[in-house]
């Protein structure tokens, strides 16, 4: 960094941000201007039907996720229940493994006739290939979004109002319904809208659960058009994705307005006093509720994937059916070696790039006086609020085609996939590094300049060492999702550029579902280890 002057570094940072965050989307939009006839596909019956299914699944899943997430958040943050830290950590485990693995797990458990649960009970009473199966798996995979947000909000809430209500004779239940929940309305709205956005833009779960049930959502329709229709199909797929873009901006705008309308000051004074509620006779039932949730949402699906990876024949629960044949099959596949190398390389390169570029963006936004310093941070976060399928299509048309210049085309190259990862996850780095940088006293930088350090020297010698623990956390936050990403990769990969996500998807859909479970088991072990390492680094103080 010290090779360039601050102004040159700032200009290069702007070029990088525009190149990966703006240009692809702009290219795709300009491409559609001469073809207004393409927009008629938005109103075709098949697309409207997929829109209806998308919204139905999203809102139904949101209802059940809130029904589960709100009480769980309160129990692990504001009550005297045993093991609050244990439940608070493990109930967030779905955050760290790909959502499509839960779809694979529940296919193993509830597949008609051969599902483990159906075979165990001797009845064919569960069918995961249904609307309610799709809702169940969606809720299972994404309810931690609600819990993560609300548990932090409940913990930081000043309890003066609640204590005043109890002094006046209100029961704990009445205080929760009349005081606590209304005060948390803004946070519940925010968490709900984030959950809804993630659900509407999800691909893995609808593809694995919805397609066999003939329940097609917008993301699976986009995938079908982009894969089956050539370059014209990609244009049609992007037009269909306008529904998702519209919903993402609508939800963002709606969330901002509703949160402002219902905002309540939850933190008062210099110290928060989050009172712990004594559950009394309800302590044991609540403990059972959390244990049941932990079993059905985490232990059962993860255990099903691991167990099925050792089955020779799906659904056969006998000891003689156990073997290592699927692991041997994986290790013999050239695609497995390609997927492991590609995923590790893309995750490492993407994570490092997000850390470096995110640090530059954060520094110039918070520590410089250059024109446009606030805008660059907003632009870098733009792709994060756009569904991954849209980002992938935009990069496919722009960088994939090289804007008509064959020499700069990245089609069939792993770098095309890497660029989409960086564009999508750059906001994570920027939003994490911003608060960390603001906590560093500016006097340290001024002292460095007094002793003759240049601006970029201050970044190299002072800010970077102090922020290094935070950068390690940022690396894991960015790299772990990249390691198993599917939504964007499935639209961009080709022969030789398989990733772990696309290989698992192909094995599950076409080749060998049990081999998919074996690869998913290895991925879960690796991601679980990465989660623990990332948790350790996040505890390191700067």
Features:
542 residues, single chain, mainly alpha, 25 helices, MetI-like fold
Describe this structure in words.
The chain is mostly helical and 542 residues long. It has one domain: MetI-like (MetI-like fold). Helix content is 72%, strand content 0%. It has 25 helices and no strands. The two termini are 22 Å apart.
Oligomer: single chain
CATH topology: MetI-like fold
Number of DSSP strand runs: 0
Major sheet, described briefly?
A: none
N-end to C-end Cα span: 22 Å
Question: So, the CATH homologous superfamily?
Answer: MetI-like
Report helical residue fraction.
over 70%
Tally of individual domains:
1
> How confident is the prediction overall: mean pLDDT?
84
**H/E element sequence:** HHHHHHHHHHHHHHHHHHHHHHHHH
- Helix segment tally: 25
- Provide the low-confidence segments as ranges: 267-271
Strand content: under 5%
Which descriptor suits the 3D outline?
globular
CATH hierarchy: architecture: Orthogonal Bundle
> From the helix content, strand content and strand pairing, which structural class follows?
mainly alpha
The CATH class assignment is: Mainly Alpha
Radius of gyration: 25 Å
